[in-house]
Amino acid sequence: MAVGNEQTLDRLEAKTYRVQGLTCTNCAAKFEQNVKSLPGVKEAKVNFGAAKLTVWGEATIDELEQAGAFEQLTIREERERTVRPEPFWRKKENRNVLVSAVLLLIGIAADAADKGMLAIAMYLAAIVIGGYSLFWTGLRNLSRWQFDMKTLMTIAILGATAIGEWQEGAVVVILFAISEALERYSMENARRSIASLMEMAPAEATIRRGTEEMTVPVEDVRVGDVMIVKPGGKIALDGIVISGASTVNEAAITGESLPVEKAVGDAVFAGTLNGEGFLEVEVTKRADETTLAKMIDLVEEAQAERAPSQAFVDRFARYYTPFIIVTALLIAIVPPLVMGGEWLDWIYRGLAVLVIGCPCALVISTPVAIVTAIGNAARRGVLIKGGVHLEQIGRLRAVAFDKTGTLTKGKPAVTDVVVYEGTREQLLAIAAAIEKRSQHPLASAIVRKAEEEGAPFLDVAVEEFQSLTGQGVKAVIAGNTYYIGSPALFTSWIGKLPDEAEKQISAFRDEGKTVMAVGTADRLLGLVAAADQLRPSAPETVAALRRLGVAEVVMVTGDHEQTAQAIGRQAGVSDIRAELLPEQKLAAIRELKERCGMTAMVGDGVNDAPALAAADIGVAMGGAGTDAALETADVVLMADDLRQLPYTVHLGRRTLAVIRQNIAVALGLKVLALVAAVPGWLTLWLAVFADMGATLLVTLNSMRLLRVKE
User: Fold this and answer.
1) Degrees, nearest 5: CA angle 363-367-370
2) CA 490, CA 461: separation in Å to the nearest integer?
3) CA 650/CA 644 separation, integer angstroms
4) pLDDT at residue 565 is higher than 90
5) pLDDT value at residue 396
6) 424 HSE (CA, 13 A, CB side)
7) How confident is the model over 359-374, as pLDDT tens digits?
8) Which is deepest, 64, 526, 560, 667, by most CB within 10 Å?
9) Where are the beta strands (DSSP E) in 499-633?
10) Contact 688, 355 (CB under 8 A)
11) SS3 651
């Protein structure tokens, strides 16, 4: 799309619709072109994986359905709830197939009774009733020199009737129709994971405005409204608890089924299930801005992106179809002309080659696997933003972890306070009074410790607070300037620290603790040690990645070498790189990529942005409620649970294996059938059966990805 055209489209309102009945990528491309040709439409885009249509311009639903009439597509507004597909026997096209099958059986019986004309009439009726829509589309495509699956089938069936193979023609029509029905059913199953996500959030919410309670559609709820959530009810919109306490099952967002305790001030998300408590929630996001809505949008965008394997298959299919047509034509005319073969016999073989040559199974081999895998991951609280990232994580050779908040819990706690001058209470009061103005996690740990011990830090007047980047903070209290920060900050002021302090600092670091010194420009008042506990899941995650074939598991951190070594040893990583500035983390990731190959960086999605961007795959921890993580990373672990990472790598590897199997099945069956066509072993109905079998095998094999678990 040209830049000028993009700017024009930005000024137009885009409308999105759900499309029911979309079963193949070729049909999706044709539907897109048909919509683009409508008078009021400036641009259109079809997302095959998510079965969505986006239109820039003006078009009615009737016009859109007319554009999709060749495939009997049903269009509905995006905001409408998912409609369950009709039973097989209630669909018009499927009822026609049943009627055709009955007529075929009557024809076969008439043939057995030597009633030739009646048999031909029954076969012809079966062909017309079962293949009417197929012929209409196929002949129209043929007139435009568009050679897709339906064009090839139309030529084959009409050719079969032209040479008197009435029964074969009828069997081909019925088998092809059954194949299409099964294809539709399979694709609907593959997309069901996204449909289930959409249905998780209720369509209505109970809100209180003033003294009045009312139930309204979620689209009508405003930010700031107070939402009433009763025990056992689903939460309709994102918000903050302002009254009540309960436990909430957040599996819809994070994939974690264990309930999370919620109290006043805690965030809750649309689509999650309230437990036994009564909650009043202040709405913070509109229905189309909730975390669940963003998840659905990201997953559907991911399913629209073409994976490298799919791009290769699509390029191959462009040359493959003309090759099949030329091959079929040569088989039909060369032997009779050159070797004196029977015309009807060789034309029949050529028609069989046309049928088996349909590229449907090959074209669908990759997208159905990608759609299924990304949908499965989303249901388990992992957002993968496209087939390219899914394939990359399947080829992963190295993983780099940030330390704080990734391998560790990210909430340090003060473990030791060592006083060299004054009292413990005075030291904590000074430190907490200053650190109360800082946003650093270690500052919060000191404030919490002072609150626990009742140190009177709130009464301390602090002036001229200043943050010293990468070193600590300073401030003036009662005319004296105090510093809190790394021990290195003090060595620059007072020279070498006392031996006792140096030994204590070294001992703390050996235990994996971070040390902060407190003092003035000329004396050390004391030390505060804090520890950020290793996540219990970290060692098992590292071990699981190694079992999956990840060669290098590295920790990159800005923390002190001794602290990093202690945490790294506990986690079991193979390489520990400490005291790194952001640009050094970037260099470490690049070196890892050059040495090992496909590399992932796992961090919090904000502080590690350069390293996440430099890695082949950026993995963000804890996407629930974190817009930055949702937007910046290639993969988001919504539950802030490291155990989701090995599952994601396993899913990526399985997806790559399934795609390779699908391509092998799609091409292998066709090669075997083509070889069988030359000596005349391949009948028309057997060709359709083989083509249908390849498509079903590919689809069913892809759906095995729904069963991939942790």
Assistant:
1) 150
2) 23
3) 10
4) no
5) 93
6) 9
7) 767 777 787 788 888 8
8) 64
9) 514-519, 524-531, 552-556, 575-577, 599-603, 617-621
10) yes
11) helix
Task: State the sign of the Cα–Cα–Cα–Cα dihedral 230, 233, 236, 239.
Answer: positive
Cα end-to-end span (Å), the chain = 40
For 442-465, b/e burial (b = at least 16 CB within 10 A) is: bbbbbbebbeeeebebeebebeee
Q: Which entry of 148, 402, 608, 641 is annotated as an active-site residue?
A: 402
- 489 or 593, higher pLDDT: 593
**Helix/strand number for the chain, H first, E second:** 25, 26
- The tokens for 547 are 């079992």
Paired tokens of 256 = 């974690």
DSSP character at residue 455: -
Count Cβ neighbours within 10 Å for each residue of 201-223 and write b for 16 or more, e otherwise. bbeebbbeeeeeeeeeebeebee
Query: In the 8-state DSSP scheme, what is residue 277?
Result: S
402 is catalytic: yes
- Among residues 642, 627, 507, 495, which one has the least CA distance to residue 562? 507
Instruction: Give the three-state DSSP class for 528.
Output: strand
What's the CA gap between 420 and 108, in Å, rounded? Answer: 103
pTM: 0.70
Locate 623 and state its tokens. 């996407």
Give the C-alpha separation, 153 to 668, whole Å.
Answer: 20
The b/e string for 347-369 (b: 16+ C-beta within 10 A; e otherwise) is bbbbbbbbbbbbbbbbbbbbbbb
Which tokens is 542 given? 């590292």
pLDDT tens for 655-680 read 999 999 988 888 888 788 777 777 77
Q: Considering only CA atoms, which of 368, 356, 335, 265 is closest in space to residue 662?
A: 368
pLDDT tops 70 at residue 48: yes
Distance CA 315, CA 653 (A): 24
Task: Mention every residue, 6+ apart, whose C-beta is less than 8 A from residue 340.
Answer: none
Measured in degrees and rounded to the nearest 5, phi and psi for residue 163 equal -100, 15
Where are the strands (E) in 58-203, listed by range?
74-77
Given a contact cutoff of 8 angstroms between Cβ atoms, the answer to whether 67 and 31 are in contact is yes
Task: Please check whether residue 519 is in contact with residue 501, taking contact to mean a CB–CB distance below 8 angstroms.
Answer: no
* CA–CA gap between residue 186 and residue 589 (Å, rounded): 41
99 contact partners, CB below 8 Å, separation of at least 6: 129, 130
Tokens 């289930």, located at residue: 196
Distance CA 237, CA 220 (A): 11
